[in-house]
Amino acid sequence: MQISIVNGPNLNLLGVREKSIYGAQSFETYFEELKKAFPSVDLQYFQSNHEGELIDYLHKIGFSQKGVVLNAGAFTHTSVALADAIAAIETPVLEVHISNIYAREAFRHHSYLTKNCVGIISGLGLTGYKLGVQYLLDNK
To answer: Do 22 and 36 meet the contact criterion of CB atoms below 8 Å apart?
Structure first.
């Protein structure tokens, strides 16, 4: 069974950028921990700073995987195209944010994606990804 973790723009800089918000651990290091936590799951990881590449990846996996844990970064608040891609696929998508988007700038309080996702986890740090994977295993 496959579940994809998909990260959007600037999340390739985790562990380096704004450590007070996003922490000091790289996502690659965390992903290795995540794979150990779910040894029976074929976890895939994809990150891109480009909206079209994220859409193409969702189209590619969106009819064959158990689920997607998606942190679209800033595209969450701007991308109708990414929301449409989520709506177009059959694979359930769970939206995740490392920081609490509702405790940040007002423009971050709106997500174009949420209405097409099975749920949202916001503000629990990297643990949100683990909770998202567990939810997809338990519910979809």
So the answer is: no
